[in-house]
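Reading group handout, session on sequence-to-structure problems. Before we discuss, look at one worked example. The prompt was deliberately terse, the way you'd type it at a terminal:

> structure KTSC domain-containing protein

The input record follows.
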Amino acid sequence: MPQIAMQDVDSSQFHSIGHDVTSNTLAIRFKSKAGAGSLYHYANFTAAEFEAFKNAESIGAYFGKYIKPETAKYPFTKVEPATVA
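And the output record:
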């Protein structure tokens, strides 16, 4: 599993996002009430797709429209559970 550098984002849904070019893996850490939530990796996500995602007007809306419904195209794995404060 690649170690992916994460960047904080201004989103009500996401804590941080990152991308590994070598493995085409998108990493998303969701928010939880305690702060950082669960970390998920999405496969088959290209660098161009990551640029479009991170530069979207709303990354939450982009995720809901283009990533979340495409489970066959972008299979995901829960990498870490939410941290408990």
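Points for discussion. First: Helices lie at 47-54, 59-67. Second: Residues 6-80 form one domain.
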